[in-house]
Every structure is written in C-alpha cells, then in structure tokens.
Amino acid sequence: MRILFLSPSAQMGGAERSLLDCMASLRAAEPWWQLDLIAGEEGPLLPEAREIRVRAHCLPFPKRFARLGVFGTGSAAIARQSVTALPGVARYRQSLHQTIQGLAPDLIHTNGLKMHLLGAWDSSAPVVWHVHDYLSTRRTVAQAMRLSAKGARAVLANSRSVANDALRLFGEDLPVETMLNGVDLKRFQPRGPRLDLDELSGMPPAPSGTVRIGLVGTFAKWKGHEVFLRAMARPEFRGLPVRAYIVGGPIYQTSNSQFSLEELRALARDLGIGKRVGFTGFVPNIPDAMRALDIVVHASTAPEPFGLVIAEAMACGRAVISAHAGGAAELVCNERDGVSIAPGDHLALAAAARDLLRDPVKRMCLASAARTTAEARFDRTRLGPALSAFYGNTLNRGNLEPCASSTSTAEIGTAA
Fold first, then answer.
1. What mean pLDDT comes out for the span 198-224?
2. H helix intervals, 179-239
3. CATH for 197-377?
4. For the chain, which has fewer Cβ within 10 Å, the N-terminal or C-terminal residue?
C-alpha cells in the first residue's frame, strides 16, 4: 500500500504533531507500506518524518497562498486574498498533480484546509480528509469544502465534536469517522528531563517551593493567552509562591491570526505582572517543558477541536486546567483527572489555579489520574491499526454508496 500525506504546514503545531503520531504508528503497524509526505513549506515536520522512514518532500506554497488566513479572518478579507492568490494556486496545483502522479499513491490523506481542497481537486487517487477544525461555522470555508466534497471519499475527525460538525456540513454526502489524537506515551511521561524555564525566559531563578503554572501552545489569538494573563494578574496571587509562564511562539505564516511576542509582553506589563511571567519563546521539546510545570493551563476562548496539549500534559502527569468546550470537553473528567472551567472566564481560571496552588495533595492526585487516563485513551500505538482498517474500508467503499449509517459516535482506534 502506498499512502501520501499532504500537509500545508511543516511547523510543529497540534495538527502537525498529530500527523506525525499517525505516520509513526502506521509505520509500526504496516512496516512494508510506502509512506510519503508533501508539505507546503520547509519545517521541522519534514526531518522528523524522515526519521520514521517517511519519504518527506517540500513543495513550497506560493507566498500569497501561504499567507492566506482562513481561520480568524473575515469572509470579505478571504475573498480579496484569494483573488490575488489564484494565479499562484493554479501553477501550484499543476506542480502538485505532477508530483502526486510520480509518487502514484493508492490513497491520499490530507491534513489541513488548503491541502483538503488541493487534494479534492486532484483525481490521482482517493482522498480522505483528516479534519482538525470546525468547518461549518465559517461561511467561506464551509462553502469551499461543500463544493469540494465530491473529490473526497471520507472524513476522519479528531473528536466527536468535530465529527458532529462535519456531519452537519456534509450530511449524507461523506461518511465521517472519529479517531481521537494520540500521544507518544514513552516521550510524554512524568519522569524525564525538565527545561529551565527561568533561564529560557531570561528571569532569575524562582525561589524554592515556587509553583509553576504555564500555558503551552502556539500564539493563535483564540488560544487564551489574554485570559491566562488576566487570571495571573488577579490580586490574590500577589505575594504567593507562584510563577507563570507562556511557552511557545507564533509559528505559522498565515496573516492576522496570531499574537506577537511583543504584544503579549506588553499586555503583561500593562497588567502589572511583567516581572512575574516568563516568556520562553518557541520550545521544540514540549515534554521537557511540561515536566517543568506543576500546572498546565488550556484556556482557549473558542471550542477546541481536540486539545492535544491537554492530552500531552495528562500523559506527562501534570495537573491540568482546561476550557470545557468542543473536543476538549471529551478529554477531562472534572475534578477526577483535571479541572474544567468555562472558556474565556479569567475569574474561573484564577479560582481553579488558586485552589490547586493551595492544595498540593489535590495536584498530585489529579496528576496521577491524568496519566492513567492518558494510558487508557491516548496511546498513539492504537492509531496505526485503526488507520489501516479505515483506509481499507475507504478504498472498498463505492463512491455511490449511501452514507446514512455513518455516525460521529463510531469512535475508532480507542478502548474508551
């Protein structure tokens, strides 16, 4: 079997880490299959894919197409940007088609909106869309995906929440399956090296006994950095043995969708906590960063399609506070293996953080239970066999077969 993966980005955000986990698990499950990856830019995903014997290629997007932001951008702005990007997209489609024909895949697995569309517009092989985002809530995106649905054979969603959204968009036109993202439990585990977050942030060492709380992730504006900073600025934290960290940076090329480091630093200064918040910048070794934290915060202000950082923090045996919406609500059982709060509520976040700060026994119990949950639900070794079966079913499914029996509640590749 020859599988071709298409990814618009080669940076290591959540969707790309999920794709790498899929390829690694599939390589272990089907060692004789030919796996290829085409990315729309150079980045760390490519060498990491090559390390697991995936033939990785870069076919760079035209600059205007690369910077075309579809999430967090208005429909009118998308339309204007799309018009200017069209000539380059046409040339890119031809180059991509020639490359795909040369690789001769049996199936194409796309991993992001731009590659969903490009893959569907190519007739070289059956296409499955691995959807990591809500599509129906964005009019331009929904229209483009609906118009392109005839070029896809099936949808793989990373949570039941995303699957339900896809079903609302495609109805019976496409079968939809759910497969939760996986985590490398050998890499993301409680024991192991820890980064010096103070040194990375250019801060003096924290006093002994300091509780470290951090938000880990890209600088997408909906990831809740402002909520986190406002929570940490609450007066009840002044004088307490706590230090906050923002771990990560802006990694994507798309316009107007990310904070800059300077913007977040300025906000921290305006809130009067500039000296109590560390900014590490982009950190390639996420497990070592998570192990350096006592509490990991997920503060997304919009429903999270999955929330890979939550699963990874749980695998590292950290106490987790997460925004309870979307796919993230499927990961944490409140007060059993984490703490759930309403999205965008900095007062609720502050209260949850203060509670965990004052109760080290509760932190320890939540952390232990989180690891147990991760072992039961997020082990990436399940992905390979699940994908192999999914691909086989997809190839055997006729294009005209009714899809009414497809359901987002049919979660594949999990024991939960």
1. 94
2. 197-201, 225-232
3. 3.40.50.2000
4. C
